[in-house]
Amino acid sequence: MDITWSNFKKQLPVVCQAIAEADFLAIDGEFSGISDGPSFTTLTNSLDTPEERYEKLKAHSMEFLLFQFGLCTFKYDDVKAKYIIKSFNFYIFPRPFNRNSPDKKFVCQSSSIDFLANQGFDFNKVFRDGIPYLNQEEERLLRDQQEEKRYHTNGASTTCYMYISPDASRAPVVPVIPDDQKDFIDKIVYQRKLIYQTMNWKFPRGTHVETVESPNNERRMIITKVDEDERKNKEIQKKVKEQEDLNNAVGFSRVIQAISSSSKLVVGHNMMLDIMHTIHQFYCQLPNDLEEFKSLTNCVFPRVLDTKLMASTQPFKAIISHTVLAELEKRLQMPPFNPPKVESAEGFPSYDTAVGQLHEAGYDAYITGLCFITMADYLGSFLSPPQTHVSVQSDVISPFFNKLFLMRITDIPYLNLDGPDCK
Amino acid sequence: MDITWSNFKKQLPVVCQAIAEADFLAIDGEFSGISDGPSFTTLTNSLDTPEERYEKLKAHSMEFLLFQFGLCTFKYDDVKAKYIIKSFNFYIFPRPFNRNSPDKKFVCQSSSIDFLANQGFDFNKVFRDGIPYLNQEEERLLRDQQEEKRYHTNGASTTCYMYISPDASRAPVVPVIPDDQKDFIDKIVYQRKLIYQTMNWKFPRGTHVETVESPNNERRMIITKVDEDERKNKEIQKKVKEQEDLNNAVGFSRVIQAISSSSKLVVGHNMMLDIMHTIHQFYCQLPNDLEEFKSLTNCVFPRVLDTKLMASTQPFKAIISHTVLAELEKRLQMPPFNPPKVESAEGFPSYDTAVGQLHEAGYDAYITGLCFITMADYLGSFLSPPQTHVSVQSDVISPFFNKLFLMRITDIPYLNLDGPDCK
């Protein structure tokens, strides 16, 4: 299911429910580029230590935009003996939501854009109708601004309410006023003060002040004569509106927050960059230190599993020669593996693996989930008695938790999110 | 007329003819952003010297992509007593044309992208079907590579032809070979040499060698037994193909080269950034020094006219209060101005100024041309005898040549491309 800004608010409860009821989640991201400097070979040098790899990806890969996020939720149905899936394809764009919102910049790499264009990627959906987002710092800042504004405009003291402009919390845009403009500015400031004072004197019973912004960014002050009840009512309405604006601005980050707080197992394929981008874009600046990054990842995604790492580890390593997602998926349809039965939930379009829509993030997430189930079930066949369905709680899977595949590094088996790395 | 990569080769002669026959050209560019750091207010501070303004725009505005270029050609028809116009809307994208091509990065600014998205800008046309380009340095490099390659594969000496790989001119991709890979590489190099030597010995009458690349970047060597005539024929075919590949890669830069070599008057509105981006993207890195930039601009566009500067100068300044393109165009439809009669050339879609398609580059170029004609004709009304049509050779226009509008700077009237600036 494609989710853009147009249907985001309507579909968010559907997404949250899918996450809440799932046994596990599969994710995948599409980015506007991979490396802003070094070649891909240099970025993923086979002699890198985990620290070096992390530092290079942080330095050269984070200026790109994660602009499509795939989420596929998997819930096992005991009666049907199959997984019921819900697949979502989110289009993401840092749309400026008002004139105070951060005007984000991001880099595009021609080869990556060209690659996605050849896959039929819909850039118009991203740029015209992408879902906005804020990281935690930006969300906190916006929340603080709103609260401070409310305190000033809606405080107990009438004096405070009357004399302080609703926008006092915002720093002036132009702190240095050129000499020839000083008289003009002084006059405006004086007139504004005069309006507030006159209001106070003429309408001692109370007024309501609000600043509205027109679509072309012109701002007007609307002053309404109100009694105490009306004033309270207007304030409540305003608070609801502000809360809604805030939620809208937080946008896609709410999906990541829902995934995070669910503590569900999150499965990805070669997911180091997916995790780094997700944290960088929707949570906070990445830390310089790899160990701090590991702690942060444990907070955001308490349990992850990388199917590329799984497929590169015994007993799979011996029987799987190519671990690129599309080839892995093909290989896992052949013996000794048994591809799992899955079914799209009602109202969700179903993917046909025979046709394939590779590199659409929702489809890649779906395929990743399939690969995970197939490999997990294969491990179940060695149990006594053998199990045809292995749950995500099974001990056979836990050795693969919280270990990330490190591309091209042959002598270090993985990045260990739960402790120090192998040397 | 929309020009993308799909119809570029077919339409290029049409574009070149339109340029060649025109009295003047109007241009406009759309960019993926304006400032990668400072706010727009800081970037265009009213106290900037011309040097400071140029340095700031160069430092903070050139990482963005000029991804739509509008060109409108105006040719006066004496019989019809009106201008015949041809309008082109080019979509531009640095598509990597082969595996050796530069993998360009560019920055997008959310507010600019959002602004264009709201205007209905078609990002898919840019990224899926944009016209590639090379700057002069890249073109020269590619040409040199091709010539060197041809010299080696097609040289007089058979020995040279036989022993040197067709790709010897390209630097090896991985200069440092890890110790554990050295044996493998040595073996491959030996085998390759063996193939060339055996060929020479088995087929002394001659062979033709070529390396072909499959769509998924796999490379194969194709060796064909040929006699001398066939070999020459194949070489000619190859040369034609290479020339075509080179022309394709140069892509949109050929349009700018055609504009440049025509020496026609180029009209733009607030065109400093248009000129800077055009030179930066299709010619060369911008020089650090403003005077060098002026010389360079004189080479690329020997004669330019900025309608924003014209409208901000007497006698227009006194009667035109807003010089933003859309408002200027409206103002110039009212007395004392007479909007000119124009007609789209046969086969070219006509623009309707009543509906407007502002911020499509082709339309903005068209409107810019209209504004120029209206203002020029107004100046003609002061001549004795008064002229209703003023040609681009007229003395009444020449005072406006080669002066660029400097946004928000009030005490310096313009950037003078023909000499030192006012202090």
Keywords:
homodimer; 423 residues; alpha/beta; Nucleotidyltransferase, domain 5; 2 domains; seven-stranded mixed beta sheet; two-stranded antiparallel ribbon; 15 helices; 43% helix; 15% strand; elongated
Structural class of chain A: alpha/beta
Q: Helix coverage percent of residues of chain A?
A: 40-55%
Give the overall average pLDDT of chain A: 87
User: CATH architecture of the largest domain in chain A, please?
Assistant: 2-Layer Sandwich
Tally the helices of chain A. Answer: 15
The Cα radius of gyration of chain A reads: 26 Å
- Largest protein interface, residues of each chain: A-B, 34 and 34 residues
The general outline of chain A is elongated
> What is the CATH topology assignment of the largest domain in chain A?
Nucleotidyltransferase, domain 5
Kindly report the name of the CATH homologous superfamily of the largest domain in chain A.
Ribonuclease H-like superfamily/Ribonuclease H
The oligomeric status of these chains comes to homodimer
Please report the first level of CATH classification, the CATH class of the largest domain in chain A. Answer: Alpha Beta
**DSSP E strands of chain A, number:** 12
Helix and strand element order of chain A: EHEHHEEEHHHHHEEHHEHHEHHEHEE
Provide the domain count of chain A.
Answer: 2
Family (chains A, B): Belongs to the CAF1 family.
GO molecular function (chains A, B): 3'-5'-RNA exonuclease activity; RNA binding
Pfam families (chains A, B): CAF1
